[in-house]
Amino acid sequence: MISANNENLQLARTAQVHILTNGYVRRSGQGSRVASTVAYVRDGAVRLIVDPGMVAQRNDILGPLASLGESQGSITDVVISHHHPDHTIHT
After folding, report:
1. Which of 26-40, 48-62, 75-89 has the weakest average pLDDT?
2. Which of 23, 52, 54, 88 would staple 37 via disulfide (CB 3.0–4.6 Å)?
3. What does the alpha-carbon distance between residue 16 and residue 43 come to, in Å, rounded to a whole number?
4. CA angle, 60 as apex, 78 and 82 as ends, to 5°?
5. What is the distance between the alpha carbons of residues 80 and 89, in angstroms, rounded to a whole number?
6. Rounded (10°) CA dihedral 63, 18, 44, 11
7. Is it the case that residue 64 has pLDDT exceeding 60?
8. What b/e readout covers 59-69, taking b as 16+ CB neighbours within 10 angstroms?
9. Using H for helix, E for strand and C for coil, what is the string for the chain?
10. Distance between alpha carbon 44 and the CA centroid of its chain, in Å?
C-alpha cells in the first residue's frame, strides 16, 4: 500500500523512463506493418518493460537495453497495455 507521506512521494519521482524503440505504421504495396513503442522504466530495484511487441527483431529491444547497462535477465516486470500482437509478441 502506498501512503501519502513525503518519503513515498519522493520515491515516486525517482523513476527513469527510456524509449527503447519507437512505434510505427508502415504501409506499402504489400500491406501494412506495425510496431508499438517499447519503453523501459527503472525505479530502484524495479526494471520494467512496457509493450515489448512486434519489433522487426529482438535486438531492437535488447540493443538499446544493453546501452543502458541492462540485460534481458535483469528485467523484473513486463507491462502489456492491451492484447494486440504489436504490444505482446516478445513477452
Report:
1. 75-89
2. 23
3. 6
4. 35
5. 10
6. 180
7. yes
8. ebbbebbeeee
9. CCCCCHHHHHHHCCCEEEEEECCEEEEECCEEEEECCEEEEEECCEEEEECCCCCCCCHHHHHHHHHCCCCHHHCCEEECCCCCHHHHCCC
10. 16
- Look at the block and give the residue holding cell 516478445: 90
pLDDT value of position 31: 73
What pLDDT does 43 receive? 92
Owner of C-alpha cell 525517482: 14
Neighbours of 55 (CB within 10 A): 22
Q: Residue 37 is placed in which grid cell?
A: 513503442
Residue 88 has a pLDDT of: 54
